[in-house]
Amino acid sequence: MSPTLATALALLVATATTPPTGETVVRPGESLAQLAARTLGSEGAGPELLAFNHLEGSPAAGTKVLLPGPERARAVAAIGSARSAVVQAPAGSARTEAEARLAEAESLLAHARYAEAASQADGAWKLLSEAREERSRFAVAVEPDGRTRVAVHEGAPVRVEAQGRTRAVRAGETLTVIRGQPPGAPILEAASSSPAPEAPVLLSPEPGLKLGLEPAPGGLGPVRFSWRPVPDASGYVLELAGPRGHIFRTTQPVLTVPGLPAGKYRWTVRAVQADGTLGPPASRAVQLVPGRIKLEVKEAPWQ
Amino acid sequence: MKRAAGDEWQAAVNGTALYDDDKLRTERGGSAELHFPSGTVVVVSEDTLLGIAETRAAPGRPQADVTVLRGAVDATVDRPANQSLTVGTPAATVRAGREIVFQ
Q1: Which residues on A lie below 8 Å from B53 (Cβ)?
Q2: With contacts defined as CB-CB under 8 Å, which chain B residues touch A156?
Q3: What is the ipTM for the molecules in this complex?
Q4: Inter-chain contact A136–B76, Cβ cutoff 8 Å?
Q5: In sequence order, what are the residues at sequence separation of 6 or more whose Cβ sits closer than 8 angstroms to the Cβ of residue A220?
Q6: Domain A202-290's class?
Q7: N or C: less crowded end of chain B, CB within 10 Å?
Q8: CB contact, 8 Å: A224 with chain B?
Q9: Opening angle at CA A174, ends A170 and A175, nearest 5
Q10: What contacts A298, CB < 8 A, 6 or more positions away?
Q11: Residue A167, SS3?
């Protein structure tokens, strides 16, 4: 088959399935592996390129070759996510099934069946994610100088992207991104270069106190939490666990909550360093109950 | 809060509904909780300015997007296998939960 005819046929068939985003011409002396490395970024993607163009052998120099569009990028990303999930998953039936789906996805990618490959890879990812199904909790802070700080408290990793580069941040890690720069490497809270601040000394409410409060928007209130300042702390995180969970950030060693539903709470305070790492927690229990109504008895204004 | 089509900042009260492109600002000592249709909850810390970028859940893709311009948020994605949350900032984009969902 002549190069021109091959190109025409490939164009006809490929257009009917996956819309290509471009084409290239095979250079003199360029092998299939070299062509694949140049166009798809992988020497091993030669068979995929052939499949996408419906060619049976290495194309001759001067042949126009179609290149896959965004569907391939999506399939490759899905396979990457699935591969990462499989590596991190503990041994078990979910992992075995996910490995099988991942292998199928990779095979489909090699045959340029991108939508099916992405679907299989996503199935593998979903299998492992559902097996885990742990909630993900993380914080994002934008500093006045534009820096972004990401801290993952628990659950699956989050992905931080900047300047075309993506980093995964796992539970217990923090990552800072300077505006206009790609993300650096995440650091473990415990492995922070600067020493962690000490645990705050809690002041009020006192331990185990049953606090009688007046009705307020949101329940009873106001509730004032205070603790001693921690040296070198840039702020504090106060976490409330109880009938209403809540996380507060403050720069002061005191925080007043206008109203909370009645019940038993545990309040935990941690100091935050300038680089975003959290210090050890200090925790106390408090119970909020409706306070007694205050009535004032006055003398009647008449005789 | 400020509506997408409005110029005036107005006080938000418990239960106020926010929509795409609305903005929310908390003052010092203030905070707020954003509950998205997907079930994702974002706690907005004091002195924070953010925008609601996406509240619609596309078929098979429960999603919530916010853009934080100043301050801090704490997010909880209860079911990361089925939910996703994207937090944009001036320096980065943070994604949690599902990356791609096919139904």
Answers
A1: none
A2: 80, 96-97
A3: 0.90
A4: yes
A5: A213, A214, A259, A260, A261, A262, A288, A289, A290, A291
A6: mainly beta
A7: C
A8: no
A9: 105
A10: none
A11: strand
- Is the pLDDT score of A134 beyond 50? yes
| Structural class in CATH, domain B23-95 | mainly beta
Element (H, E) at A80: helix A70-88
Per-domain residue ranges of chain B: 23-95
Q: What is the pTM of this model?
A: 0.47
A46: phi then psi, degrees, rounded to nearest 5:
-60, -50
Is B31–A118 a contact, with Cβ atoms under 8 angstroms apart?
Answer: no
Between CA A21 and CA A37 the distance in angstroms is 17
Q: Kindly report the CA angle at A130 between A127 and A134, in degrees rounded to 5?
A: 145
Residue A34: HSE in the Cβ half-sphere, 13 Å Cα cutoff: 10
Q: What would the pLDDT profile of A204-216 be if each residue is shown by its tens digit?
A: 898 877 888 888 8
Contact B69 A142 (CB under 8 A): yes
Question: Residue type for A174, please?
Answer: T
| Candidate from A130, A135, A217 with C-beta closest to B76 | A135
φ and ψ of A255, to 5 deg? -150, 130
Q: How big is the A-B interface in CB pairs under 8 Å? A: 130
CB B31 within 8 A of CB B42: no
* AA letter at A177: V
